[in-house]
Every structure is written in structure tokens, then in C-alpha cells.
């Protein structure tokens, strides 16, 4: 899930996304996620303030950062966790943590990406109270695009909130406009998974190996 930092200029923070190619063969999905995560950690340098994402790929990245700190290969890292789950994991690994109040400027953020194709589903995080009512609002909001809202899960990893995946039969058009409609017009929405003007690098692991795409 993307975390918005409106006070940041895009050029002031590097956001690394890790994704998997559906054509990957020979390795399990978790092994591929670990490869992508470890590659993303290569961008982390000593002394950085690092945003720590929340998903199965980001979990591997946090593990790797903890390992490198323990080995002395990284020093003076400050992590900014995006959920209680990530916070607890980082604490268990001895990663020093802070928050945006104390460190409002992040050098680099690492998170997983479900897709890097704008034509695929858009994940939306919503509060669990009346999540069905909230989910039913999206098809009306995007009725011209043939929107279908499906519950992915409700779990503690995202601070106890639910993830609703939005599928569109037609192009939703301007992503900034769609983002504002999701965030401003429906009560109960916490955030969405569109990394607009945030991600600078995408790491994709597939049958051809590791591909790095820069903005």
C-alpha cells in the first residue's frame, strides 16, 4: 500500500518499488520477492532515513536491512515504518526507528508493488467499519469505467484495515483525478496503492532476471 507524503517534493525522496513478472519460472513467488527485495536494499546507504513498507516483499527488505546492520555493513540507519506489523518486525531486528514528526524528510522508501501496469487493479485501504458499504460506493463513483470492487482481505498487517481491489473495464483516465475522487469523495478510505509522483525506480524480477526501470 502506498503511503502519501504530501510535504515531500518528488525529487527529495527516492521511492523503490519491487514487483514480480507473471512469467517468472523456476523459483517460488516468495523466492522471487526476496530477490527483488534484496536488490532494492542495495539502494540503501549508511546514514539514510528509510521508509519501510508493508507487504510480503517489503518484509524481506526489512529482514535484509536488519541483517546488514547486524553485520556492520550498514550504519546509522533510521527506519520509518508504515504499519504496526513493520514496526514490530524492525524492532525485533534491532533497526532504529522514528516517525515523520521527528524525521519529516525521507531519503529513500521501499515498498512492494502488486502491479506496475496502470490497466490493472487499484488497491484501496479502507477502515473495517462498514467496509461493505464503502466498497459499494466505488462502482457508482466510477460507473463510466465499469468499476468492480472486490475485498482482498482485512488483516492486522495494514493496521487492522481492509484492502479493496478496484478492477476497471475501461481506462480510468487521469490518475490524479481518480486519486482525488477516491480519497476525497468516499468516507472510510485511508489510502490507495497508486504511487503517483512518488516512485522513481521499479525493480522487476522475471524469467530474464532482474530488471530495473527508472522514472
TrEMBL record:
One of its GO terms (molecular function) is ribose-5-phosphate isomerase activity. SUPFAM superfamilies: D-ribose-5-phosphate isomerase (RpiA), lid domain (SSF75445), NagB/RpiA/CoA transferase-like (SSF100950). It is an enzyme of class 5 (isomerase). Pathway: Carbohydrate degradation; pentose phosphate pathway; D-ribose 5-phosphate from D-ribulose 5-phosphate (non-oxidative stage): step 1/1. CDD domains: RPI_A. Its EC number is 5.3.1.6. It catalyses: aldehydo-D-ribose 5-phosphate = D-ribulose 5-phosphate. InterPro entries: NagB/RpiA_transferase-like, Ribose-5P_isomerase, Ribose5P_isomerase_type_A. Belongs to the ribose 5-phosphate isomerase family. This is ribose-5-phosphate isomerase.
